[in-house]
Amino acid sequence: MEYLTLTAVPIRPTYWNIPKWAEICQYIGGFLAVIIFLWGVSVHIRRWKLGQPEKFEWRLRERISALFQYALAQAKLAIDPYAWIMHLAIFWGMVFLALGTALATIDWDVTHLLFNFQFLKGSFYLAFEVVLDIFGLALIIGLLLALFRRYILKPERLKMTFFPTFPLDSLFLIIILLVIALTGFLIEATRLAVQKPQWQWWSPVGSTLAMILPVNSESSLRSAHLIFWITHAISSFIFIAAIPYTKAFHLVSSAVNIFLRNLNPPGELKVTSSSGVRLISDFTWRQLLQFSSCTWCGRCQEKCPASQSGYSLSPRNLILKLFTYLKNNGTTDHSRSTEDFVSGLHGTVVEPSELWACTTCRACEEVCPVFIEHPRSIIDLRRCLVAEGAVEKSIANALNNLNRYGNSFGKSDRMRAKWTQNLDFKIKDARKEDVEYLWFVGDYASYDPRMEPVTKAVATLFHKAELNFGILYEAEKNSGNDARRLGEEGLFDLLREKNIQAFEKARFKYIVTTDPHSFNTLKNEYKLNGTKILHYTELISDLITLGKIKPKQKLNITATYHDPCYLGRYNNIYEPPRKILNSIGINLIEMPRNRNNSYCCGAGGGKIWMEETPNIKERPAENRVKEAAQLGVSLLVVACPKDLAMFRDAVKTTGLDQKLEVRDLGELVLETIN
Amino acid sequence: MNSSILVLIETQRGELVEISFECLSAARAIANSTNSKVIGLVLGKNAYQIATKLGSCDSVYWNELDGAELVPADIVAEALGMLIKNTNASTVLIGGTNNSLGLGSRLSAKTNIPFVNFAQKITPVDSDLVVTCRFLGGKILADVRLKGSKGIIVINSGAFAPDLGKTEGTPHCEKLDGLVSKPRITFKKFIQPAAGDIDITKMDVLVSIGRGIQNPDNIPLAEELAKLLNGAVSASRPVVDQGWLPLTRQVGKSGMTVKPKLYLALGISGAPEHWEGMKDSNMIIAVNTDANAPIFSFAHYGVVADIFDFIPVLKDAIQKHKK
Amino acid sequence: MNYLVLIKMVPDTVEEIELLPNGQGIDSSLTRYKLSDPDEHAIEQALILKEKHGGNITLLSLVAPEVDDVLFTAIAKGVDRAIKINIDQTNLTTTSVASVFSLYIKQSNLLSDPATLILTGSQASDDLDGELAPIIAENLSLPVLTVVSGVTLNQNLTQLVVFKEFSGGLRGEFELSLPCVLGLQSAESPPRYVPVSKVRNVMKSSKIENVELPDFQPSQMFQIEKLYKPEISTHAEMLEGNLEEVADKIASILSQKGII
After folding, report:
1. Does the residue A100 lie in any domain?
2. What residues contact A386, with CB distance under 8 A and at least 6 apart?
3. What is the CATH classification number for the domain harbouring B310?
4. Are residues A94 and A149 in the same domain?
């Protein structure tokens, strides 16, 4: 038995029981593993560099803060506590153990070798030991939680239909980390069983394990120790070397992606090329980086209204297909092929039906832990189809109507303000008189006969509040938000030009709009410097606060509210509608999926103009009204004309028309002041 | 006036086409008020048999052309040209069908007789005819004067009631020989529409059902009515959504756009998306229990009734009128 | 292979159509014009044939409001030449328009190559005095077929197999030789979409050829007394009475209309 001499100072017994050849092999192995790792990372970087340039703003403080919040604390996972704790345990367990190894290397190969001292001694060493034991244990617990969830609980979103790397990648990752962690503890345990230092309980896990080891004799313990040590070394090197070639690469890419992410407002679409994306290299470096950062978690798919309804789109699969293509063809895809458009990504990697199924609701982007911008890439791909004229008839009709008549209904632009005719007051013509608020009414509010009572109600509300407002009458055109998101950038420019021309001829301080889609593009993409753009819920909320609108006859109804995608998720406006509901006596029961978790009605991204896809089990709007009905409320309040149209329709097709009423917020407010 | 009115009696594959009666009716009305004669021209398969039954004509010229199922336009034009010369006919009436489209224009270019399209009404004034035409999608009417009643007139389907054209009797029939045109277009064959579901955009009559039909077991009621009218059943979106009828029967913004002669809307409220798909129907008759249903604002005729009470009664009335 | 596509602009019925004060014509300064729908199908069919068999597409038009947009859009779609004949098309009868085209085609020798197909829409909404296709065919002594919904060309570019629509979904198959005239009802596939950016680029890079036709004289075979708008009712005529009475009324109406 070898007893440790009673030295006063604890010190790390590096390479105890390790023969020289093993020590040398370890250095060689480690070196090779790192070289292979670096090589793999460089291949990824080379692929990202294939992409087009993209403007980058340093904004260092925000980026570092994001790194802390989202990469280190993984705040995006907090909504899923099981996953959050599990992943933090794995991540931080690994980080600390890796740090521990790094310190040990410096301690032995730098300070000891070159300067003849070790810092891993004394109380620092004891602290070092206990911290590593705790984090090592955390790592194992985290990995066991992962195994349990993936193979026992089996959540739907973790099921993969294809694998960018290889089928058992996820299992490989969990197992190899388990092997590393377990062998690490076993190394410690076998050594402690032999050495039995006084301070051994500073390694609580190792010591406990040592107590239950089935072997006793020193020679067997030493043999076991060596075996565990070699296994630990080999599995660690395999893990490190394999990182760039397995799912584990997200360790590198997600941190990089979070750091380098797009800090612009989500409502401002980034458009790389006016002809869209045909080849993988048409994407920007940031988009290619995003594809490489996907962790396969499937949360985007779970939140996607298209996926959940049975359309052929899965945001995750789309991203991973692009990543796989990049991986397999990226470095050879330099030249811009002059073949006809059928080559490239369309029809080979992505199908048009996947692209057209997207409502651009951004639920995927919102829930993604690593900040992938799925809708942006989808729209880039759409733009290529549009450039080739490869759009179905109903989309072509809508676009032609927008171009020719300035509205998607195909009605004369002279009919835009027809709804004002039956009002008992005249709305100011902002083209001729100065107004304080320019009301940008929007297509649906102006032309859809079902919206007419709502639009008139909002007008009456403004009138009763003595608001100094006006409209542009025939000069207003569709804002272009959805044309842009369909991929018709030229049409968006045309509509924007015409609207801005009309704005320039008018004099106003603020713009207020009823339609969140119009609101989004006016606020984020029209670049009307100095003009404040408001959604009507913001304005009405302010008017109530200022006492200009006095809700006298409170409604006393229990209702629920649907957060519109382009108002909520896109522009972070959640409170004004709720304040209004409170002021008018509505007892609000929140939808289970509310605020930034709101479930899209399915009309966005131009989908409201598309033909119905056959064999869809349940449309997003139908799913949503059922969600509302389940709360036991009789009223669903909306703040968007497309929501109104979609939900009223869904209420009929789901047979809920006697149970659930769909009303616009403005209309309800008017009722309380009459 | 003693000039004659020449009517092209159209057939399709040997069967008389309904619009021919409308043309005959129009011709008869003019003839009666101007003391003229009505001359018919029937060509192709079954021409003689058809000719002998046209009691509203004073005389009918015919030629079976070896039982041709499709008579080349060149020959029809030649026949009409011949008759115009030989019978002192100054007015020619042709029905507005796909088959005869272009015939009148070409004949006019050949003979220098004025051609007028989209006729809705024909009024004899002195020795002239004033033709009221409904064109530009029905938005504009044009009154056109044909001097000396000289003109080739194409009649809008549904503009004239066919009653006067259905007089029974046997006119004077004469075979028209000497047609020598060698058509430069060769007719190969007819192609029936593919088996499988009906193309509702090609039907003349649609009996369309909405949510008022309540459940799929009631659809046969509508189908029987459609059969009586030689039409097909179509539907608004909720019916198709429920899976009671295939997507090929859906009328509306996200379905088909139809322009039938008759659109019978049963239990359809008339939402804007539905209206978009059928607004150009020649005649819209709506039946709904809700007097305020939007469909009544754009239908031509409306009935406030329960469709289950009304359909059987309507079927009886139609059967009676058919006899 | 040469394709000559002849197009007409017609008043856009989505808008209000304004008539001249004397009721003799349409006030084109207050009316919007658009490409006649079947003509758009004629352009599409030409493009489809060009993609399959090669050749050149020449588009001919007269002067009308908004026609330049139409011509540039057609070029963006793949038409090779767009020729605008400097004669005001609005308020010209179809017969006159046909003689403009015939005169120009003859004078410019556009039929010199026998492998020439003339395409136009089967019927336009303002074809009060005739359809373009048959009149042109008569003027140029060419065979013509209208209400066409499908066109195939043989290998030698001499013969066509053409499908014509009858009622109730029935179609007819015909054969004819080039050169000839076809009046298109619908192309094999819906008119393609061309993005705004492409049209804008074409406007910068391509030219419309403006040509004169001094020998042209308009003609009209009848006299328009007046143009006017029909009475529009905004509500259905509600049929009153008990069910039998109402059913009987409907049956009479249907009988009058020739439906039963």
Report:
1. yes
2. A276, A486, A487, A488, C193, C195
3. 3.40.50.1220
4. yes
d(CA C112, nearest CA chain B) in Å: 20
Mutation target vs C (from A384, A405, A495; most C CBs, 10 A cutoff): A405
Instruction: Examine residue C77 and state whether it is found in any structural domain, yes or no.
Output: yes
Task: Say yes or no: A392 contacts chain B, CB-CB below 8 A.
Answer: no
pLDDT in tens, A375-394: 999 999 999 999 999 999 88
User: Do B317 and B239 share a structural domain?
Assistant: yes
Would you say the C-alpha torsion A301, A306, A310, A315 has a positive or negative sign? negative
Same domain, residue pair B156 and B242: no
Same-domain pairing of B159 and B251: no
Q: Which of B248, B254, B275 to mutate to test the interface with A (most CBs of A within 10 A)?
A: B254
Residues B130 and B27 in one domain: yes
Same domain, A433 and A322: no
Q: Which domain holds residue C86?
A: 2-211
For residue A414, give the chain C residue with the closest CA: C15
Whether residue A308 sits in one domain with residue A204: no
How close, in Å, is residue C207 to chain B by CA atoms? 31
Task: Record the pTM.
Answer: 0.90
| CA distance to partner chain A, nearest, from residue B214 (Å) | 11
B237, B242, B272 ranked by CB distance to A449: nearest: B272
What φ, ψ does residue A645 adopt, rounded to 5°?
-60, -45
Q: What was the pLDDT predicted at B319?
A: 92
The domain boundary residue, chosen from B175, B209, B228: B175
Residue C115 sits in a domain whose CATH number is 3.40.50.620
Residue of C nearest to A387 (CA): C195
CA distance B316 to chain A (A): 33
Kindly state whether residues A243 and A125 are assigned to the same domain. Answer: yes
Condensed to tens digits (0 to 9), the pLDDT of residues B46-57 reads 999 999 999 999
The total number of structural domains in chain A stands at 4
CA distance A261 to A70: 11
In a domain, C204, yes or no: yes
Distances A378 to A290, A310, A364, B111 between C-alpha atoms, Å: 13, 18, 12, 61
Q: Is C154 an 8 Å CB contact of chain B?
A: no
Residue A339 has pLDDT above 50, yes or no: no
Asked, for residue A15, whether it belongs to a domain, the answer is no
Is the same domain home to A127 and A86? yes
Give me the domain span that covers residue B121: 4-175
List of chain A residues whose C-beta atoms are within 8 Å of the C-beta of residue B237: 653
Say yes or no for a CB contact (<8 Å) between A450 and B272: yes
Range of the domain at A584: 557-673
Nearest chain C residue (CA) to A487: C195
Task: Please name the chains neighbouring C, where neighbouring means 3+ C-beta pairs under 8 angstroms.
Answer: A, B
Shortest Cα distance from A337 to chain C (angstroms)? Answer: 20
Local confidence band at C195 (pLDDT 50, 70, 90 cut-offs): very high
Question: A443 — contact with chain B (CB < 8 Å)?
Answer: no
**A492 vs B98, more confident:** A492
**Mutant choice from B140, B166, B186, B307 vs C, greatest count of C C-beta within 10 A:** B140
Which pLDDT does position B297 carry in this prediction?
A: 87
B128-135, strands of its sheet edge to edge: B172-175, B59-63, B37-43, B4-9, B89-95, B151-155, B115-125, B128-135, B140-146, C223-228
H-only helix segments in chain B: 19-34, 47-51, 73-87, 103-111, 219-228, 237-241, 272-278, 307-322
- Higher confidence at residue B255 or residue A405? A405
Within a domain: B97 = yes
Query: In this complex, which of B242, B247, B272 lies closest to A614 when CB atoms are compared?
Result: B247
d(CA A480, CA A521): 8
C247 within 8 A of B314, measured Cβ to Cβ: yes
Taking 60 as the threshold, does the pLDDT of residue C205 lie above it? yes
Domain assignment of residue C124, yes or no: yes
Beta bridge partners of B52: none
ipTM of this predicted complex?
A: 0.91
Classify residue C242: in a domain, yes or no: no
Residue A6 confidence (pLDDT): 54
pLDDT in tens, A91-124: 999 999 999 999 998 888 888 888 888 888 888 9
Give the amino acid at A447. Answer: Y
Q: Report yes or no on B188 lying in a domain.
A: no
Contact A120, A11 (CB under 8 A): yes
A449 contacts in chain B (CB < 8 Å)? 272, 294
| B247/A652 Cβ within 8 A | no
